[in-house]
Design brief:
CATH topology of the largest domain: Rhopdopsin 7-helix transmembrane proteins
Strand content: 5-15%
Strand order of the largest sheet: 5-4-6-7-8-13-14-15
Distance between the termini: 138 Å
Number of domains: 5
C-alpha cells in the first residue's frame, strides 16, 4: 500500500483504542502484509492468515489471543477478487478501500465483500457525463487488459454510442507483461495521428504509472486526457520526475478524498524510525518533510532520519486515508455492535480479554451498519456491500516554477438528485495554451448549424457526417439534427431554414403594378368602346352604320363593353362569388360577341346573294333572323355554364404546392371539362365566323365588312390559341394575368378590326359615308 495509507491504518487503530466509548476493554490490533501484486506472496499471506503463522498449515491454530476478525485490504481489483473467493470459504468479512470492480457488487458471488470506495459503474457514469457536458463526441481510449478495465471500456463504449458519440481508436496493453518496443511505437503512432482531442486513459494507478514511464503521453500538445488513476496525482507522485514539457490538459477522476484532522496531526508528529521498515521510506519521508516545510509547519527532519534529494512535494490529500479510515471504523463499529448484542462472548483471562466469536456473525452487523464516521458523515453499506460515495474531478496543473497545483474542479455524486449529481467549474480548469477554443472541442465533424442536417455514410462512424441544407419545405432549429422537420402546409421555412413562417398569400391585387395596369386598360378600352357606341348612336342613320345590321353592331358594342368590365372580376381576393362569375360571365358575354359577329357575317353573305333577281334569300335579311342567331348561339353557352355551375362550380382554392414559400389564392375551375367546353364552344363560334367571313371576303362592295371580320377572327383565334399553353404553364396570379390579357387582347382585336375603320370614315372621311360607296361597282 502507499505509505500514507499505511499511516492512516495505524492512526485509525490508535484512535479507536484511545476511544473509551468504542470497543471498551477491547484492544483492536492489526497485522500488516505487503503483497506487491505478487501471486506467490498472495498465497503465502493466505496460508499465514488461516494457520499458525510460521507453520503454514491451513486450519491449524494454537493462538490464545489476537484472533483474526476481518481483512482490510487495498489491493488491485483482480487480486482482491481472487482473495475474496478464499475469504468466502472461511466466512471472513473482507473490506477493500481500493477495489472498484463492478463484478464484486454481486452479493451472491461475494457475500462477505465490502468496500469504502464506489464501484466502477459510477466512475463510467461520471466520465460519460463529463463527455456530454463538453459535447466531446469523438474520443480515443487507452486501457489495460485486466478484467475490470475491459468491463469498464464496454460500459463506456455503449454510453458514448448512446450519446451519439464515436470512438476513434481503442488501444489495449498488457497489465502483466512489459510493453514491447513495437507496442509502444504503435500506441505512440495512434495517439499522434489521431484526430480526436480527447483520450480516456482507463487503468489502475500502478499500471498507469508504468505506461507513463514508457510513453510521454502528457507531453503531447492538443490532447485532453481523462484519467482514472487517482494516486499518481493526489499523492504528488509526478514530483519525482517532474518535466516542464508536461501539458496542462488532464482531468482525473478520484474517489472523494477528505483530510482527517487527527490523521494530519499524526503525520506531522510521527517518528518514522519507530515504524516498520519500508524500502521506499527514505523517498517518502523526505517528500513529507518538504511538504510540511512548504506549509510552514515547524518540524525538524533530523539527520538520523533518512533523506534523498526531492525538489518539491505538493500532495493535496493524504493518499486514500479517508477510505482507509472508513474501512477501519466500519469494522470497529460492527464489532462493537456485535459485542454489545451478546453475539460475542467476553472471556477474562488474566489481564487480557479477547472476543470468542464465529466470523460470519460480524457479517450481519456490517450489513446493518448505520453510524457517523470521524467527520460526522453517514457510514453504511448497501445490500451489495458498497459504500455510497462519489468522485472528485481534479485538474493537475504543472507550474513553470516546478510546482504542481491540484484543483478540484468538479465532482459526481450518484446519490444526489437528478440535475445536481454532476458539477463542474469550467472557469477553474486550466487548459493548455495550444487550444484555440476553451473548452476544447473534440468532434469528428463540425456541428451542423440550424437550417442543416446530418448526412451520414455507412463507411464512416455515426458521428462523422457532412452537413447539408434542409430540403425544400423543411427546417431545423437546433444544431446537429439528424433530420429536418417538415413545415405545416400553410407555413414555409425562412431564408435560413431555421424556422417555419406563415406563407405569403398571393393573388392579383389592384395595388401592384400588374393589377393597376390591367385595371387601367380594362377601363380605358371600356370607355373607348362606350365612345364608339356613342358615335354609332349619334350617326345611326348614316349608311355605314346601317350597313350590316345596325342592331347587331349595338349588341356587339354592348357585349364588348361588358367583356372589358368582366376582366376586372379577375383582380382582387378571390371568393365564392367572384370565382363563379369570372368564367361564366366571360363565357356568356364572349359567346354573345361571337354570335353577333357570326350573325353579321351571315347577313353580309346573304345580302349579296339576295341582290340577284328572283332570289328567295331576301326574306332572311330581316332582324328576326339575326336576332335568332345571336339568341340561339348564346343560349347554348348559357346552358353549358348552368350545367357547370350546378355540377362542379369554381371555388376559392389555397394552392400550397405550386410555388415555394407562397400560398396561391386562386379559383379552382371545379370541372375542368366544363371549363374547356366553354372555351371550345367559343372557339367553334370563332372558327365558324372566320370561315363564313373568309368565303365572303371578295364580295364586290365598296365597304365589305366581311374582310374586317375575317381579320378580327384571325386576331381572336391567334390570341386564344396561344392562351391555352401559356395558361397551363402558369399558376397563381400570373395565370389570372394571362387570362385577363387574352380577354383584353381579343376584345380589343374585335373592336379595332371591326369598328375603328368605320369610325375613321364617320369622323375623318364623312364624304365616303354615303350609299354610292356601299353599292356594287
Amino acid at each position: 500500500m502507499y505509505y500514507y495509507n499505511f499511516l492512516a491504518f495505524i492512526s485509525a487503530v490508535m484512535d479507536i483504542n484511545k476511544n473509551p466509548e468504542l470497543l471498551p476493554n477491547i484492544t483492536l490490533g492489526l497485522q500488516l502484509y505487503r503483497i506487491c501484486n505478487n501471486p506467490f506472496l498472495s498465497t503465502k499471506v493466505l496460508m499465514d492468515l488461516f494457520s499458525e503463522r510460521f507453520y503454514g498449515l491451513p486450519n491449524y491454530q494454537c493462538r490464545t489471543k489476537g484472533l483474526l476478525t476481518a481483512v482490510i485490504e487495498g489491493l488491485p481489483s483482480e487480486v482482491s477478487m481472487q482473495l475474496s473467493k478464499v475469504f468466502k470459504i472461511y466466512h471472513y468479512p473482507q473490506i477493500s478501500y481500493a477495489s472498484e470492480n463492478l463484478l464484486m457488487s454481486d452479493a451472491v458471488k461475494f457475500p462477505y465483500f465490502y468496500r469504502t470506495v464506489p464501484n466502477e459503474l459510477h466512475l463510467c457514469e461520471g466520465i460519460l457525463k463529463l463527455l456530454k457536458l463538453f459535447d466531446w463526441t469523438w474520443v480515443g481510449i487507452i486501457a489495460s487488459d485486466d478484467e475490470s478495465s475491459m468491463r469498464a471500456i464496454n460500459i463506456l463504449k455503449e454510453g458514448i454510442e448512446q450519446n451519439s458519440g464515436c470512438i476513434e481508436f481503442t488501444e489495449i496493453f498488457s497489465h502483466t507483461n512489459e510493453l514491447s518496443a513495437e507496442k509502444i511505437h504503435k500506441i505512440n503512432e495512434t495517439i499522434y495521428t489521431s484526430s480526436t482531442n480527447v483520450i480516456i486513459y482507463y487503468c489502475n494507478g500502478e499500471i498507469a504509472f508504468n505506461l507513463l514511464d514508457e510513453i510521454d503521453m502528457l507531453q503531447i500538445p492538443g490532447k485532453v486526457w481523462i484519467t482514472t488513476h487517482k494516486s499518481d496525482f493526489v499523492s504528488g507522485r509526478y514530483d519525482i520526475r517532474f518535466n516542464p514539457k508536461i501539458k496542462n490538459n488532464t482531468l482525473a477522476f478520484t474517489t472523494v478524498e477528505k483530510n482527517i484532522p487527527d490523521f494530519s496531526k499524526f503525520v506531522q508528529k510521527v517518528n518514522p524510525t519507530l515504524l516498520p521498515e519500508y524500502d521506499k521510506l527514505e523517498l517518502f519521508w523526505w517528500s513529507l518533510c518538504d511538504y510540511l516545510c512548504n506549509k510552514n509547519i515547524k518540524r525538524t527532519c533530523r539527520r538520523d532520519e533518512p533523506r534523498v534529494f526531492m525538489k518539491h512535494c505538493t500532495a493535496k490529500f493524504f493518499g486514500s486515508s479517508y477510505s482507509v479510515y472508513n474501512a477501519v471504523y466500519a469494522l470497529a463499529h460492527a464489532l462493537h455492535d456485535m459485542v454489545r448484542s451478546g453475539s460475542g462472548n467476553s472471556m477474562q483471562s488474566g489481564e487480557s480479554k479477547h472476543v470468542d466469536y464465529l466470523p460470519w456473525k460480524l457479517h450481519h452487523y456490517l450489513r446493518n451498519l448505520h453510524v457517523k464516521n470521524v467527520l460526522g458523515e453517514d457510514l453504511s453499506f448497501d445490500e451489495n456491500g458498497d459504500y455510497s460515495m462519489g468522485y472528485y474531478i481534479i485538474n493537475p496543473v504543472f507550474l513553470a516554477n516546478g510546482m504542481q497545483n491540484i484543483e478540484v474542479v468538479g465532482g459526481y455524486n450518484p446519490n444526489a438528485p437528478s440535475g445536481q449529481d454532476f458539477t463542474i467549474n469550467e472557469k477553474a480548469i486550466v487548459w493548455e495554451s495550444a487550444f484555440t477554443q476553451t473548452p476544447p472541442q473534440s468532434k469528428c465533424s463540425q456541428s451542423c448549424p440550424p437550417g442543416f442536417r446530418k448526412l451520414t455514410s455507412k463507411e464512416k462512424p455515426i458521428c462523422c457526417y457532412d452537413c447539408i441544407p434542409c430540403p425544400d419545405g423543411e427546417a431545423s432549429n437546433q444544431t446537429d439534427m439528424d433530420s429536418c422537420s417538415r413545415c405545416p402546409e400553410d407555413q414555409w421555412p425562412n431564408k435560413d431554414r431555421t424556422s417555419c413562417i406563415p406563407k405569403a398569400v398571393q393573388y392579383l391585387t389592384y395595388d401592384e403594378p400588374l393589377g393597376t395596369a390591367l385595371t387601367f386598360f380594362s377601363i380605358f378600352f371600356f370607355l373607348i368602346t362606350a365612345a364608339i357606341l356613342g358615335i354609332f348612336i349619334n350617326y345611326r342613320d348614316t349608311p355605314i352604320v346601317r350597313a350590316n345590321n345596325r342592331d347587331l353592331s349595338y349588341i356587339l358594342l354592348f357585349s364588348l363593353m361588358f367583356c372589358f368590365l368582366c376582366s376586372l372580376l379577375f383582380i382582387g381576393r378571390p371568393d365564392q362569388v367572384t370565382c363563379i362569375l369570372r368564367q361564366s360571365a366571360f363565357g356568356i358575354i364572349f359567346s354573345i360577341c361571337l354570335s353577333s359577329i357570326l350573325a353579321k357575317t351571315i347577313i353580309v353573305v346573304i345580302a349579296f346573294q339576295a341582290t340577284r333577281p328572283g332570289s328567295k334569300l331576301q326574306k332572311w335579311l330581316g332582324s328576326r333572323v339575326s336576332n335568332s342567331i345571336v339568341l340561339s348561339c348564346s343560349l347554348i353557352q348559357v346552358v353549358v355554364c348552368l350545367v357547370w355551375l350546378t355540377t362542379a362550380p369554381p371555388f376559392p382554392y389555397l394552392n400550397m404546392q405550386s410555388e415555394f414559400g407562397t400560398i396561391l389564392l386562386e379559383c379552382n375551375e371545379g370541372s375542368i371539362i366544363s371549363f374547356y367546353c366553354v372555351l371550345g364552344y367559343l372557339g367553334l363560334l370563332a372558327a365558324t365566323s372566320f370561315i363564313v367571313a373568309y368565303l365572303g371576303r371578295n364580295l364586290p362592295e365598296g365597304f365589305n365588312e366581311a374582310k374586317y371580320i375575317t381579320f378580327s377572327m384571325v386576331v381572336f383565334c391567334s390570341v386564344w390559341v396561344s392562351f391555352i399553353p401559356t395558361y397551363l404553364s402558369t399558376s397563381g396570379k400570373y395565370m389570372v394575368v394571362v387570362e385577363m390579357f387574352a380577354i383584353l387582347a381579343s376584345s380589343t382585336g374585335l373592336l379595332g378590326c371591326i369598328f375603328i375603320p368605320k369610325c375613321y370614315i364617320i369622323i375623318m372621311r364623312p364624304n365616303r359615308n354615303n350609299r354610292k360607296y356601299l353599292t356594287i361597282n
